[in-house]
Amino acid sequence: MPDALPTVAVLGTGTMGFAMAANIAKAGIGLRVWNRRRELAEPLAKDGALVCDSPAEASEGADAVLTVLANEAIVSEVIDKARDGLGVSTAWIQSCTVAPDGTHRLAEQADKLGVEYVEAPLLGTKEPAEAGELTILAATAAAPTRQQVQPVFDAVGTRTVWLDHIGQPSALKLAYNAWVLTTVEGIAESLTLARALGVDPRLVIDVIGHSGLNSVYVQTKGPKMIDDDLDDPSFPLQAAAKDAGLITDAARAAGLRLGIAETVRERLDSAVRGGFGHADVAATYRVSRRMST
Fold it and tell me: Are residue 160 and residue 193 in the same domain, yes or no?
């Protein structure tokens, strides 16, 4: 462990970033925060955070800069705006889900900015983030940086999986999300089929619950689909659609065609076009599966 806790700048205080920043503050770590919409960051002041007006201001004096942003392009833009606040010993923790080639581009940007790059996509959604129970998939080219950022990971999660090379955490995250999105679509299709065949879809959840295929995810998402309780997202559908695109693009680049993932991508894209992008990923259930004639 380091002799002293680091000072951390959190850039991006949306649903995930806000929860992570709050847990960093609770751990007694010095906290500076920035968000494009300042009002979303201001409540963190009561936890002791210094709310800043720019990424550069937030990054001043920070031992670690944690970006919790929507996509690679936004991450790249924001960290570039932080350049004047970055120090020679700053570690940049990049948590956004990006493609493996995207994380290499960001690592190259970190090198040009003179900071150590820590690839750190997250496993978990709103509730685990609030509870400080995320899993972090991490890699960095500089071994001593692991020690520097570990207190941050310990504050926001319960498990850190260190991998050997940059790109591996993002690849593992995409493989994990392929399973998550396939599961959500599978639940939606099972419930839709039961209803169409005249069976109470709640019975689907019940029989799965008494089988070896049960999971917390089924028991959580299934009832929300049936009750149409989908407008307070744990994982926004538009973010899931972005990830589905990353999954299928990465698979194609590797010479694969993942049939289920391709279908899930189409379904999620249809849901976004239908206006459900800000709902929970389970709102894929709202997309019609009726055959057109």
Answer: no
